[in-house]
């Protein structure tokens, strides 16, 4: 069976006055209709990998890969027009903080309808009906009221749900969630994860879940990729994360607080030059 997404030797670099910064250095993985977690500290290349798949790398960035294939489509060779047609319709991305992702001068309902009507020829009435249904699907209690609100009028959790609704309205096959719960409190985090879990299961989507929270990923995802300095250092089943072999992954796990243990100060990573080689 052909994988939904195949990434082979993906590289993302940025020329600067002082030299070339290599943000992603030879990342390779495949994704089926499953939940794949990508974890690592800030600057490890997680978000840059997701943006390269989406075609959202800034213009001055250089993206290369031996293969970057989405369901038979060569994303490296795809034109800007082809990429625009894919984004939102077949591949969608939920960003970290809704207040920076939603348009502050457009109502939430109008933004969701605009996404749908960009990819499908539907009437305004049908778009509104489907937008309300999607807001209800992401467990917004009063979708008609929220439909007419502006982003600044909703909480962070509700804004993130609206963002998820907007990304799912056109029925994508692949969803990239870039730390979608990091700005939310714990109870809202669980609600958002339940929504994603239900929608992925019901729609048979592939999900790339980018996070720095190892506990969250180990309980939510099927597989986990651990990144350090733009490279993958370890790949394993999420349920086996506690048995990780790479010293970097072990170090990340060891830095987490343990209930019932006196660990003050918390240990810090003892980084080795060979991890980044």
UniProtKB/TrEMBL annotation:
InterPro entries: AAA+_ATPase (IPR003593), ABC_Ni/Peptide_Import (IPR050388), ABC_transporter-like_ATP-bd (IPR003439), P-loop_NTPase (IPR027417)
Pfam family of the protein (one): ABC_tran
Chief location category: membrane
Annotated Gene3D superfamilies: P-loop containing nucleotide triphosphate hydrolases (3.40.50.300)
Record bears the keyword ATP-binding: yes
GO MF annotation, one: ATP hydrolysis activity
Coiled-coil parts of chain: none
Keywords linked to the UniProt accession: ATP-binding, Cell membrane, Membrane, Nucleotide-binding, Transport
Subcellular localization: Cell inner membrane
Gene Ontology biological process: transmembrane transport
PANTHER family: DIPEPTIDE TRANSPORT ATP-BINDING PROTEIN DPPD, OLIGOPEPTIDE TRANSPORT ATP-BINDING PROTEIN APPD
Similarity annotation: Belongs to the ABC transporter superfamily.
UniProt-recorded name of the protein: Peptide/nickel transport system ATP-binding protein
């Amino acid at each position: 069976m052909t994988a939904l997404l195949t990434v082979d030797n993906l590289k993302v670099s940025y020329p600067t006055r002082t030299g070339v910064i290599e943000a992603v250095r030879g990342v390779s993985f495949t994704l089926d209709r499953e939940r794949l977690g990508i974890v690592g500290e800030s600057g490890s290349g997680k978000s840059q990998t997701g943006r390269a798949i989406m075609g959202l790398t800034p213009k001055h960035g250089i993206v290369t890969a031996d293969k970057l294939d989405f369901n038979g489509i060569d994303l490296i060779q795809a034109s800007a027009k082809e990429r625009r047609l894919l984004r939102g319709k077949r591949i969608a991305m939920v960003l970290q903080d809704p207040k920076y992702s939603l348009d502050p001068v457009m109502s939430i309902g109008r933004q969701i309808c605009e996404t749908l009507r960009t990819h499908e020829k539907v009437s305004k009435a049908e778009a509104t009906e489907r937008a309300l249904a999607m807001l209800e699907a992401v467990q917004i209690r009063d979708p008609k009221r929220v439909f007419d609100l502006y982003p600044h009028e909703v909480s962070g959790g509700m804004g993130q749900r609206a963002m998820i609704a907007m990304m799912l309205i056109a029925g994508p096959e692949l969803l990239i969630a870039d730390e979608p719960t990091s700005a939310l409190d714990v109870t809202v985090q669980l609600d958002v994860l339940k929504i994603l879990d239900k929608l992925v299961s019901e729609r048979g989507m592939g999900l790339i879940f980018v996070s720095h929270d190892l506990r969250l990923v180990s309980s939510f995802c099927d597989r986990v990729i651990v990144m350090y300095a733009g490279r993958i250092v370890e790949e394993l089943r999420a349920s086996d994360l506690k048995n990780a072999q790479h010293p970097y992954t072990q170090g990340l796990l060891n830095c987490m607080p343990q209930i019932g243990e006196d660990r003050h100060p918390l240990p810090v990573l003892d980084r080795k030059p060979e991890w980044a080689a």
